[in-house]
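Example record for the data management plan.
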Amino acid sequence: MKKIFFLIFGFLLLVSCQEPKISADLLVFNANVYTVDDTQPNVDAFVIKDTRFIAVGSLEEVSNTYLFEDSLDAGGKTIVPGLIDAHCHFYGLGLQQQKVDLVGTKSYDEVLNRIIKFQESKKVSFITGRGWDQNDWEVKEFPGKEKLDSLFPNIPVAVTRVDGHAMLVNQAALNLTKIDEKTKILGGEIIKKDGKLTGVLIDNAMDPVTSVIPKPSISEQISALKDAEAINFSYGLTTVDDAGLSPQVISLIDSLQKNNQLKIRMYTMISNVPEYVDYYLKQGVYKTEKLNVSSFKVYADGALGSRGAVLKKPYTDKENHYGAMVIGTREFRVLAEKLANSPFQMNTHAIGDSANAVVMNTYYDVLKNKSDRRWRVEHAQVVAPEEFSILNDNLVMSVQPTHATSDMYWADERLGKERIKGAYAYKQLLEKTGKIALGTDYPVENVSPFYTFYAAVARKDLAQYPENGFQKKDALSREETLKGMTIWAAYSNFEETEKGSISIGKFADFVILEDNIMEIEEDKIPNIKVKATYLAGEKVY
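Corresponding structural encoding:
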């Protein structure tokens, strides 16, 4: 290896003596580069100047033209474009670092123990947390608030289910709201047992509690954003699509980016709150090199795990239960028509086949005289056969492969043996639309894009189950998966001309991996580590 290095170094010295015409900032060479650019899919070198790629090809080709201030020998490692998470909750992940972490709990008692330990350490006035999932417990039922009431009779507690569509609260938290046994909330459900409140709230029923949780201070918000950035850079993520933020948080992100206190690129979806919609429709699309504010995040229904997803036929495991729309169909139609006459994208959370039918048919109808609007269906988990026929270039499917491998243990209980066949159908969605954007939905799932990659191609969880993959017919190839995490994700954001591939003129965002993700043994994909992450040619991890 030393001999090869000195030969290369000598070659570069020889070339530099020939006075190349163009100066550049950085040469990266001796690399196995997957460019995700069909014109030259695999190269061994590229050149960066002023934050962008200016040459891509072989070492000999680029060395004949450029003089470099610095060079990086990649040691034969694999390099891919900066990874993009097409659907996540970046700010939420950061805030989660300041709350009780309930991810991976195997029982309600474990949930309670984590809350107790958190409070012993933090001593907060209102306990919040996220990550419990009753489907992972031996008793797969929603918990009740009695033990919380006993442990914390005077301190409010509100802990959210892993999917963000259900919340367990104690009586002290309920006392801060007007919720009682007679309360009814449109688009949500207040779970009761024997006529008494259990403390479990579904979808819109969570709003009264959410409104009384103390808002984080500006310093806490900044810490959350910086914490989330560090985590994402460690996984090679250089652009994140945050699915639902307020104007205040978006403004804070913009300010931090402009002051170089936050470097990660963000596509931020504006939460569907009437005053937010009115504000941004007047302000218009906002775009910088780091921030893209051009879409609204809308919820059609809830989640399958909490039985809030809306189905065309009843849940198999709950008689006469169809789920509930979070937004009324008329309200959804009016909003879609309003946004169709604006430059903004509409990105709608749709899980159940009924919700997907409403979303896809409404999109198709209001956009029928328009082209290339790229309105997104977020999740598209259960799609009936009749909806596949209306997919076109106005619609982008934004899916999260690890949902399939997390849900596969119980999804058929909700959907039944036949309906499950049309769920998590990523290959079919890709075939109908030509592109598919991939994300994680973290902190619902793990941040790691390598878990995403593995779930997409192997259709297995981290225990390598099932042996032959879950509904393997809907697995994606490695090439399709890499595109879904780079160029197709960029396309879903209208950003494919500036990122998503290692191509001349695009931002110099790239990741050096310890292993070759395109060739490594399939079951080793989740363990791939990031050696370095570069954003605009700057090493950020």
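Summary line stored alongside the record: The chain has a mean pLDDT of 94.
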